[in-house]
């Protein structure tokens, strides 16, 4: 009799455990589903709009906020209007506005007399570093250092100067600046990479060219307090595979993941807490979407999704999670972390592309575009609010200053810097 009672008790406990586990799992999924049920907020009110430009072609690519000033960076062919002190030809510009949107000054600069192409900018202390491509004897990479106090501009040309090269990324890590560039090797018919480390005064400290018997495509970097790693997609004879270069020290370490992830093309990466999320497409399964987490120097289980013909993907990190948008014939959104992957059907229905994302103190901002209609997604505390930003010809950058959303856009022949009141009271 006692044995029979014990058996019944064990059965009851097992049933209770399964019930509680199922409830817990549903609670996790319920929390994630909240992302997929967005609410709509009012459209922004433009309080201030500043127009920049001249009589020729002008393009804006970046807007940055620092120390109560707004910095606008782009390219211009003009030497009148906002660029009256400029020389002829194609050059870069840095325009400065105060926090009320008033135009203060504009600097133009460029190593080449014919072509200077903006790639990326970063504010470090009281300087702005601008990475660009330019036409010299070869297609070359140039890094500029602009002193925001006295307007002086210094530059250094990077790479080999022997073959055509172009800039890919600009990274700051542990009192050093890293520039990643790319060249095409005519001998091997493959793309190769170069990585240069400089100090803040633009003095080169280390240079290394990464050449392999594979076509190398730069994807992104992930950093921690003690490591800086470059992720690339390598293409062998038939299939792709991810690779990683540890550039924390000057003796760069190349890690080949062909044996673990052959035929998985690396589309994008992002740091989620202490892990790295790799978004992939499986070339053996009609380029179907997949993802895997890399942590403690090893890969976890590969997760395959029933989405085919994926060409590229974008990732917006959101604290412990990531909003991943897959692009192929349509746009599909998933919310992913190490435990859960959930489709975000309401976002996918819009068939909009994720243009840019920005982490702010209260959450994450994601700008999406469908044709010429832009929307802003504000994600905070497992809730998504969507704001229609209206029709713009082309939004190239945005930033946040106090409760203003600052948008830099090209409108016909003009550059418009719009200060819109949307935060925080629209998102309470």
Keywords summarizing the entry:
five-stranded mixed beta sheet, five-stranded antiparallel beta sheet, 428 residues
Radius of gyration: 25 Å
Describe the sheet with the most strands: 5 strands, mixed
> Any low-confidence stretches, pLDDT <50, length ≥5?
19-35
Structural class: mainly beta
Total beta strand runs = 34
Which term fits the overall shape? Answer: globular
Please report the number of helical segments: 3
Strand content: over 45%
The residue fraction in helices comes out at under 10%
Fold and architecture overview:
The protein has three helices and 34 strands. It starts with a helix and ends in a 7-residue tail after the last strand. 10% of the residues lie in helices and 58% in strands. The strands form eight sheets. The protein has a five-stranded mixed β-sheet, with no helix packed on it. Strands 19, 20, 21, 22 and 23 form a five-stranded antiparallel β-sheet that branches. Strands 2-34-33-32 form a four-stranded antiparallel β-sheet, with no helix packed on it. It is globular, with a radius of gyration of 25 Å. Strand 8 and strand 9 (139-147) form a beta hairpin. With 428 residues, it is mainly β.
Briefly say what this structure is:
The chain is mainly beta and 428 residues long.
Please specify the SSE layout and strand pairing.
Blueprint: H1 2-33, E1 39-40, E2 45-52, E3 58-66, E4 69-76, E5 91-98, E6 103-109, E7 116-124, E8 127-135, E9 139-147, E10 153-158, E11 165-173, E12 176-185, E13 190-198, E14 204-210, E15 215-223, E16 228-235, E17 240-246, E18 253-256, H2 258-261, E19 264-272, E20 275-282, E21 288-295, E22 298-299, E23 303-304, E24 312-318, E25 321-327, E26 331-336, E27 341-343, H3 345-349, E28 353-360, E29 363-370, E30 373-380, E31 383-391, E32 394-401, E33 404-411, E34 414-421
Parallel strand pairs: 1-31
Antiparallel strand pairs: 2-34, 3-4, 4-5, 5-6, 7-8, 8-9, 9-10, 11-12, 12-13, 13-14, 15-16, 16-17, 17-18, 19-20, 20-21, 21-22, 21-23, 24-25, 25-26, 26-27, 28-29, 29-30, 30-31, 32-33, 33-34
